[in-house]
Amino acid sequence: MTAAERRAARIDDEIDAQVLPLFLEESVDLMREIGATLRQWREAPTGAEISRTLQRALHTLKGSARMAGAMACGELLHSMETRVEQATAMKSVQPATIDGLETSYDRVAMLIEHLRNPAAAGPEPEEPEYRACAQP
């Protein structure tokens, strides 16, 4: 687990009730784009344009999360963005890296769902569960 992922597990959100609905609305399309782009990158691991598209979507969602005060989500997205940057610098992504990104993507989806509907999503996962999800 990266240092950023450990920090995300301990970060308290500072939700801005006025900005949160905008973040949740924006997250629908961005999460769809991130998921699709991860699948494309797995199929074409040397695709530079694919990795740039993924970086842009992660960066946009990260900024939106932080503006809404969803700090743990923003920190996890930052970690994902950093891993994409590192893989891009190596000119090819390893399957294990994409596996880790997909696991983190699932965790981000859980965090967003918890923000969208806290009662239906149940309590936030405990830190050990988070650590299992956040492994690269």
| Rounded mean pLDDT score | 86
Q: Can you tell me the overall shape?
A: elongated
**How many strands, which pairing sense, and closed or not: the largest β-sheet?**
none
- Alpha-carbon Rg, integer: 14 Å
What would CATH call the homologous superfamily? HPT domain
Give the count of structural domains. 1
Question: In CATH, what is the class?
Answer: Mainly Alpha
Reading the helices and strands in chain order gives: HHHHHHH
Poorly predicted tracts of residues: 127-136
Helical amount among residues, as a percent range? over 70%
CATH topology-level fold name: Four Helix Bundle (Hemerythrin (Met), subunit A)
Q: Number of helical runs?
A: 7
Strand content of the residues, in percent?
A: under 5%
CATH architecture label: Up-down Bundle
Count of beta strands: 0
Separation of termini? 6 Å
**Helical/strand content category:** mainly alpha
